[in-house]
Specification:
Blueprint (H helix, E strand, L loop, with lengths): L1 H16 L6 E5 L7 H15 L4 E5 L3 H9 L5 E5 H9 L12 E16 L14 E4 L5 H12 L8 E4 L2 H9 L5 E6 L4 H7 L4 E3 L6 H7 L4 E5 L11 E12 L5 H13 L1 H5 L10 H4 L9 H9 L5
Parallel strand pairs: 1-2, 1-3, 5-6, 5-7
Antiparallel strand pairs: 3-10, 4-7, 4-8, 4-10, 9-10
Helix pairs in contact: 2-9, 6-7, 9-12
Amino acid sequence: MQVARLLAATAIAAVLAAPALAAEAKFMTGPQGGVWVPLGGALKAMWEKAIPGFQVQVLPGAGISNVRAVHEGKAEIGFGNSITTVDAIAGRAPFKGQHSNVCNVATLYPQYFQLVVLANAGINSVQDLKGKSLTTQVKGNTGELITQHVLQVAGLKYSDLKVSFGSYNDSVSQMQDGHAQAFTLGTTVPSGAVMDLASSRDIRLLDLSALHAAMRKINPGYTLVTVKAGTYPKQDKDVKVIGYATHVVASCKLSPDTVYAMTKTMAAHVKDMAAINKAMATLTPAAMAEDIGVPLHPGAAKFYKEAGALK
């Protein structure tokens, strides 16, 4: 009897000592045609293999709507963009109220806001978009919000153009058939969508450096990044565009043990992530833990401290 009690007590102690891992989670990624979809699929596979019993449901999304979904408990994990996630934490437009249930897990790579035009459209500046047809992402996508900001600092608004909203694939189709002359998107470089477009139409990437100072007045998180010459077909010089960062966010309520395991798994599989986006080829725990103005999830912070990336 005493042996049975001892065994039972030992079993209970083992259960109590076991990590409190989440059983499942919804993971919001991005629009079809963007890099967040394949990267989300890769992370799902990594996490499910590394974390016993953990099931991840990958769903399409967009930077702004992903952060809202995590905060509201409609999803546990999502990709975010640094500039708009900071807005969410502060409760600035387009968000209503402070989004306190959003924690940073890992900063992954720089994003590039790109304004692509048909080479024969006669568009040499953002001001030249007036009266033209522009295609961008659906409402709730960070790229669409940045499009509004770019037009704003150039003295334009949507009503000055003919604007359509859709996926990257939809936008490429509209540019290919000439229904749109300009395409804006926020993603990595080279963008698969832009490469698809360049395979059938001559395009140009507009330099946005003249708008940077005014853009920073709207959001101080905007940076200026360079799309190197040769990134796209017939691009013979460097082009300056607006930059920000992609990161993984999670509900602050998600199990710290689960987030610890997620973060450790990403750090151990940088090569696999870089196979999808080479911008992550040199990713380190220190870069993942970069302070972007969003509080770190306690589970992620635990890993970064162990890795020597945080004090």
